[in-house]
Amino acid sequence: MRVRHHVRSRALPALVALVAAAVLTMVAGPQPAALGYVSRGDAALVAEVRSLVGGTDAREAGVAAGFRSLAVGLVDGERTTYAFVGDRGDGRAPDTSTTFEVASVTKTFTALLLADAVQRGEVALDDPIEGLLPELEGSEAGEVTLEELATHRSGLPAYADVVSGAAYEGFGAADLAVEDEAAVIGQTLALRLSGRGTWQYSNLGVSLLGFGLARAAREASWESLVHRRILDPLGMTATTFARTAADVPASAAQGHRSNGTRVLPVTGAGYLPAGTTTFTTVADMTAYAGAILSGRAPGLTALEPRYDLGGNEQIGLVWYSRPSGGHTVWWHDGGVPGFSSVLVVDRVAGRAVVVLGGSEQGVDAVGFHLLDPHSPVTWFGSGLVSTLVGAAGFAVVVGAVVVGFRSRRPLRLVAAGLAAQGGLLLALRHGPWHQLQPWAWGLTAALVFWGTVEAGRRWGGLTRSRRDDVAGVVASAIALAAYGLVIWLG
Predict the structure, then answer these.
(1) Is a pLDDT exceeding 90 seen at residue 320?
(2) Nearest 10 degrees: Cα torsion 35, 40, 42, 47
(3) 288 Cβ neighbours under 8 A, 6+ residues apart
(4) Fewer CB in 10 Å around end: N or C, the chain?
(5) CB 262 within 8 A of CB 256
(6) Are 369 and 153 in contact (CB under 8 A)?
């Protein structure tokens, strides 16, 4: 009788775990980003976009399910067509009023402002940045020229604070939200330059450049300078820069990782000129592209190539250029947690493409291929760091459960349970769910679920209390509450 009771006591939690994991996988588990069937816009362009992102090249790269929503604009002379595919977050396809984060394409605004300021006589390309930002006088960064900042040859790192920058890029953490202009300049004072004169992508460098240009023009902020000299003259009324969460437009599409996890915007003022939180519409960006094609945009000398980057690619002031379709095209892409973008301009053919994506899956291939059908399709999957973190989450879960069951000490049971919950959260948020099936997370969740219940049952036996059953129930409740917290955070 005792043997049968023991078997039943072990089998029931396992059965409950499997059922709960199956339900939670369907309801609250990872849902790989996918475009679905909703769409609107030009029928031919919609079909072309769908064929491109769902074609053989995409499937072989494992990214067919890496997109959630796309807004595409194609400028061809005086004609502009749009394609909107996928779910913007409310079950409907985007439209010309839906805003996306455009990310580092924002840097092209700063580039045009620099070239325009040179033409106005406000600055010179060989001016040191300390002349505009006197706070940097006496520092290594202060000696860097405006041209070096605009061509990523300053020797400055990607961010002034390496830790917060890595957290932002890798995990979408809101570390940058508390860093304003003064904080970023203050952090820059102590930096040592590395590799000055060679290309090294720096969000910090472009941000310092933007702050300096605003002061040279005697503007209150970089944003007000952009509005006065670019956005307002070109009729780009839907483009905004979010210093705080209150500045995020209500029309914003929902951002996602390529594995389907939702991402909240990371706002802050410290890196706005580099594009940390710029919201815009495909209509505004096609207007911008059209102004570049027609010559109405200011500071177009920024596009002129200045340095070779190798592989037939060159850089001007921020703008990249390379051969395509037998002549030169200019472009810049962008990516922030939850969003991706690209702008490609062919001034010779009078054509341009804008692609805004509601997930981190890169859209460069879409943009270049729509502009030139002979352009090779090269897909990029999830970032290596994020994928490794997701894999580590699975490893932590397995290791914690093994350690917990081999332990004979109550405190080790608690530690193992907490580690398993943390591993489950990492797997949920960072697992490569555009390549793995969600049931893999369900099995991992079942293991943790059963392990926490079993740990609670064993807790009473290890404490040898007269109230073993009560201790077991309380421990199980605490563990399951932690499990629910993981689901909620995910």
Answers:
(1) yes
(2) 30
(3) 230, 234, 236, 297, 343
(4) N
(5) yes
(6) no
Mean confidence (pLDDT) of the chain: 83
Does domain 100-371 bear CATH number 3.40.710.10? yes
pLDDT for residue 467: 47
Domain ranges in the chain?
2-30+384-489, 100-371
Query: Which among 363, 337, 267 has a CA at the least distance from the CA of 71?
Result: 363
Banded pLDDT at 420 (limits 50, 70, 90): confident
Taking the CB of residue 302, how many other CB atoms lie within 10 A of it?
Answer: 24
Which tens digit of pLDDT belongs to each residue from 161-194? 877 776 676 656 656 777 899 999 999 999 999 9
- Return the closest-CA partner of residue 338 out of 212, 429, 455: 429
Q: Judge whether residue 473 has pLDDT over 70.
A: no
Provide the pLDDT for residue 303: 97
Q: What is the average per-residue pLDDT within 451-467?
A: 58
Identify the bridge partners of residue 74 per DSSP, sorted by sequence position.
81, 353
Tokens of 270: 């410290």
Tell me: pLDDT of 348 over 60: yes
Token pair, residue 150, equals 């605009």
Whole-number Å distance between alpha carbons of 32 and 66:
7
What are the DSSP calls for 48-107, one per residue? HHHHHHTSHHHHHTT-TTS-SEEEEEEEETTEEEEEEEE--SSSS---TT-BEE-GGGGH
Per-residue CA distances from 161 to 183, 214, 286 (Å) = 10, 23, 34
| Share of residues in the chain with pLDDT > 70 (%) | 73
Distance CA 363, CA 355 (A): 7
Beta strands in 276-375 (DSSP E): 278-280, 307-310, 313-315, 320-324, 327-336, 339-346, 351-357
> What's the token pair of residue 274?
């580099």
Q: At what angle do helices 2-27 and 438-463 cross, to 10 degrees?
A: 140
User: Contact, 66 vs 53, CB < 8 A?
Assistant: no
DSSP 213-257: HHHHTT-S-HHHHHIIIIITTTT-TT-EE-SSGGGS-TTBPPEE-
The CA distance from 390 to 382, in Å, is 11
Mean pLDDT along residues 370-386: 68
Give the up-direction half-sphere exposure of residue 105: CA atoms within 13 A in the CB hemisphere: 33
